[in-house]
Structure formats: C-alpha cells, structure tokens
Amino acid sequence: MSKNREEMAIEINNLLAEKADFWNISDLQVNYLNETLSLKLVSVSNADILKTFIKFEQVLSLYIQQDSEFRLNEWTETDPMLLSEISYHPDGFGFVKIKSLDQELTEIENINSSTNFYFQVNNKDHFFVEANCVTINEKTFSNLICDEEKLRNPY
Q1: How far apart are CA 56 and CA 51, in angstroms?
Q2: What is the number of other CB atoms lying within 10 angstroms of the CB of residue 131?
C-alpha cells in the first residue's frame, strides 16, 4: 500500500472512530438508484448535541447479515440504534461470493465482491460495503478502489 493511500486509510479510520463509533443512528438509507448508503448519527457531549453524516458513494456491493441468534429485529423506528462498530479496510475486509445450491444455476457463482467498509448496528447486524467514495461530514475520500472513470468504463 502506498504511503498516500496508507495515510488516507488512517485518516478515514480516525474520523470514523472520533465521529461515528458508538454513536446513535438517527437514519440509515440505501439509495439503489444513486448507488449510495447514508448514515445520520447523533451523540451528546457535555450537553451538546453532536451530529455526523456519513455517505458511501459509488456503492458496488452491499451485504447485510443478522446475527444467527436474533434473525429478525423487533424494534420500532423510534427505538435507539447504536453504531457499535465501523471501519475502513483499503485492502479489503471480507470477500463475499455466491455459491449456487442448484447445479443448474452455476453461472451465479461468478458474482463476488471484496468489501472495504464494515459496520455493525446494535452489536448484531453486520453491514459489508464495497464503496469507491465516502464522505464523513464535509470531508470526501474518492477513488478508494480505483479511479471512478475506470469503474464507469472498465473495457
């Protein structure tokens, strides 16, 4: 990993630790048409209400998995949600690969993704995100996977 890329990874993870880790989630939106996932977070410090906005852009893949002991959530929209963990992994965090259970549908096994962001909600719901750009408040980090133009025109 180049020094510049390593420094960017450190900066992203420092911002996530300072402005997001263990904050309450006031909103979580997935926008398929715009290829974005966004988080609005709130925290309180010394009676001040602090807010953070995180937007993953150019989202190439998203995998959500709920803890096997608590498969369905039983809360309402007004129940508090905790961002219990969040991190950026420039060299990839997890590899998601589809395995066909039907011998006739082996073509779907070509579908795979190497995720570079991970976050967890309420210590049980796991989000694996592959995104080429992230904005944390006003700070934007682009071309995290490769140049945007290469993603748009790979051939």
Answers
A1: 17
A2: 23
Residue 53's nearest CA partner among 94, 73, 23, 32 is 23
Proportion of the chain in helix, strand, coil states, percent, rounded to 5: 15, 45, 35
Residues near 80 by beta carbon (within 8 Å), at least 6 away in sequence: 24
From residue 16, give the alpha-carbon distance in Å to each of 5, 53, 89, 125.
16, 11, 12, 18
For 66-123, the pLDDT digits (tens) are 877 766 667 777 778 899 999 999 998 878 888 889 888 888 888 888 999 999 998 8
Q: How far apart are CA 140 and CA 132, in angstroms?
A: 11
Which amino acid is present at 28?
L
3-state secondary structure of 151: helix
Strands 94-97 and 81-88: unpaired
Q: Name the residue among 145, 61, 143, 133 with its Cα closest to residue 96.
A: 61
Is the pTM of the predicted complex or chain greater than 0.70? Answer: yes
Segment among 8-22, 48-62, 93-107 with least mean pLDDT: 93-107
